[in-house]
Amino acid sequence: MNSEYDIVVIGGGINGVAIARECARAGRSVLLVEKNDFGSGTTSRTTRIVHGGLRYLEHGELSLVRESLRERGRLMRERPHLVRPLKFVFALNENSRHSALQLRAGLWLYRQLSRTRARNGHTADVLAELERRLDSGQRWALFQYDDAQCEYPERLVAEWLVEALHAGATARNHTEVLEVRTSDGRVQGVRVRDLLSGVEQFVRADWVVNATGPWADHVYAASGLQQARPMVGGVRGSHIVVPTFEGAPSTALYSEASDGRPVFVIPWNGQVLIGTTEVEDRRNPDLCRPAPAEIQYLLRAVHRLYPRARLTTADITYAFAGIRALPYTDTRNTAGITRRHVIRNHAEEGAMGFLSVIGGKLTTAAEVARQTARKVGVRCPEPQNVWVATGSASGIESTFGQWSQMVSLATGITEQAARAVAIWHGRCALPIAQMAGTDERFRRPICEHTDHIVAEAVSAVRYEHAVTLGDMLLRRVPVALSGCFGQDCAELAAERIGRALGWDARQIVRELDAFYAERESFLVNVERPDRFRAPELGESAA
After folding, report:
1. Which end of the chain is more exposed for a tag (fewer CB within 10 A), N or C?
2. CATH number, domain at 199?
3. How far apart are CA 127 and CA 131, in angstroms?
4. Cβ-based neighbours of 1, under 8 Å, separated by 6 or more
5. CA-only gyration radius of the chain, Å
């Protein structure tokens, strides 16, 4: 790592990586630092949808909806293996906060803004079956619309990180910023510590961008500057993941909980993802955990939709929570806080060249990056608008099938493994498959319950800055997010990956212990009270 850069970006979530990529592409020298691992914070704790913001129409934020829809289209075109069209059904009953007329008007406007070219909606039979599976004691009105899903935003972060590195950026995960140094009214640079080696270093920079999301105020405090009020008004959003239950929707379902808040029931990763809550939480985001009241709130919401499923806490595979870094306001109505991002310049506070990015979301990260890059003087042309259909994903599925057959014949890996690599790695899949063809250890599945292979983990270490077993299994090759990834899988994965990377037995044990600790902190087992440390704040989801 050099001692001087044009720009230091703090925070390796989707926004920070996108900013580093944008600035490096323009020829600036960039250092990207992340305290934990890239994509390990808010990015990996979302509902994993790439949406245009149907909900934002209610608050009159038409420009944000238009921006989101435009960026959604670009992501679907540029990353079709990661961002795919997904059909949504809005389920409305007589107790819903919105009327059918309001929803029809909102969906019409949403479609006009999205300029959707092709919509192959559900047939009447499919909708009738969905309505039948919902609570028969209520009358339901079902409305269709198109959005998209990014099942693994961790992989999107990894791909953008590689592109930033190829453009000349330097990236360091597991590296904490201890101080943002200012002098004579201008930022001077940052003092960082490598958390694995303990080595500290001061890095000079003309610009420092604080893109740490809910940690933004903590990083700002490291500058020694004073502010009248916080920048971030943290709102905790919790999710639960359950196995696919009888009658579970094959499409994404959007409805309202008993208090009128939106709730999603979404097929994800062979399971069902249910979320989310909105609870004020302004403590250290490192302490973020789903509260027991939030778990019960989500169970009640899904029970209201699918009472015959009889879901209880015993059915929950795991729960997770993250903090939305919304702009700070004095309002207690979290639903009314804007989802538009803010780029704050700290020049008036005595730190010219110091910026903080507040807010933003997965869908609009690339646009946030462009706007931030322009703030630091980077010439950043607006990309060409591209509007894509959000209908069937059968085209790319056919492509995956053909590619898998060819790669299997050329490299000796199975068609299932070739397909798994393609789905998660897109254009980078071929080098991984070729690597697998060179060594039998690389061709082995990571565990017996997955088609993903050891070569993906080795590639993550070589090219995507994965360092720990958790970096690999939770983010670069996120097989540990599956419902069946238990202790046997973890031990086998650690053994196979460790041997391929040349780890000795002691390092394998150390990495496995650290992986268990990280996974249990992130993916909470609600049936294990010793692993379920509820927050002291925001015990109610209401």
Report:
1. C
2. 3.50.50.60
3. 6
4. 31, 170, 172, 201, 203
5. 23
- What is the number of structural domains in the chain? 2
Question: Tokens 């740490």 identify what position?
Answer: 212
Least confident span in 339-348, 379-388, 507-516: 379-388
CATH number of the structural domain spanning residue 420: 1.10.8
Encode pLDDT of 275-310 as tens digits. 999 999 988 999 999 999 999 999 999 998 998 899
Say if residue 276 is preceded by a cis peptide, omega within 30 of 0.
Answer: yes
| 35 and 8, same domain (yes or no) | yes
What one-character-per-residue DSSP string does 120-168 give? ----HHHHHHHHHHS-TTS-EEEEEEEEEEES-HHHHHHHHHHHHHHTT
In a domain, residue 167? The reply is yes
Confidence band for 57, pLDDT divided at 50, 70 and 90: confident
Say whether pLDDT at 367 is over 60: yes
Residue 448 lies in a domain: yes
Contact 29, 7 (CB under 8 A): yes
Is residue 48 within 8 A of residue 153, CB to CB? The reply is: yes
What confidence category does residue 541 fall into, taking pLDDT thresholds of 50, 70 and 90? Answer: very low
